[in-house]
Amino acid sequence: MNDALRDLYREVILDHSRRPRNYGAMDAANRQSDGFNPLCGDRLRLFLLVEDGAVRQASFVGDGCAISTASASLLTEATRGLPEEEALELVENFRGMVAGESEPDGESLGKLTVFAGVRDYPTRVKCATLAWHTLRAAIEQSGETVKTE
Ligand code: ZN
């Protein structure tokens, strides 16, 4: 990855961590799930409004590091309007990318490829994936707190 791209990625992550989008509890939500990453201390609660099998709205509240907050913020933008199955596919694609199992796929991941560099920092992978595991739990309505450990 060249330096310019790396700087751009860092900027997007910083921007979303400082000014998270869709931050706040959602009264209309019909799914919600909690996530906790004990390794870093990241906590979040994700709210979804699912209608006709698609995510209409997503929001979150929480307290975590820059990576986990930015990841949750970008998740709420990326999942809006997605059918549930596609949201679950996105969870897999994102997880595969940050775990270093698959190459960043701009077509399916779009802006989320800014997290591709996380694979070089194994302790940060759980920060980046916390919101996504929590999304899966909310969609599957498992009702358990997601722990990354
Ligand atoms: Zn973290």
Question: Overview of this structure, please?
Answer:
- This protein is of the alpha+beta class and 149 residues long.
- The protein has a single domain (3-140), classed as Alpha-Beta Complex (Sufe protein. Chain: A).
- The chain is built from five helices and four strands.
- The chain has helices at residues 3-18, 66-79, 84-98, 106-109, 122-140, and strands at 31-37, 42-51, 54-63, 146-147.
- It has a four-stranded mixed beta sheet with strand order 3-2-1-4, with helices on one face.
- Helix 1 packs across helix 2 and helix 2 packs parallel to helix 5.
- It is globular and about 40 Å long.
- The model has no long low-confidence stretch (mean pLDDT 94).
- The site of zinc ion has 8 residues, from helix 2.
**Radius of gyration in whole Å, from Cα?**
14 Å
Spell out which ligands are present.
zinc ion
Using the 3D structure, state the CATH architecture. Alpha-Beta Complex
Mean pLDDT, rounded to whole units?
A: 94
User: What portion of residues belong to β-strands?
Assistant: 15-25%
> From the helix content, strand content and strand pairing, which structural class follows?
alpha+beta
Which series of helices and strands comes N to C? Answer: HEEEHHHHE
In total, the number of domains comes to 1
Count of extended strands? 4
Tell me the helix content.
Answer: 40-55%
Query: Largest sheet, order of strands side by side?
Result: 3-2-1-4
Straight-line distance between termini = 30 Å
- Uncertain parts: none
User: Could you name the CATH topology?
Assistant: Sufe protein. Chain: A
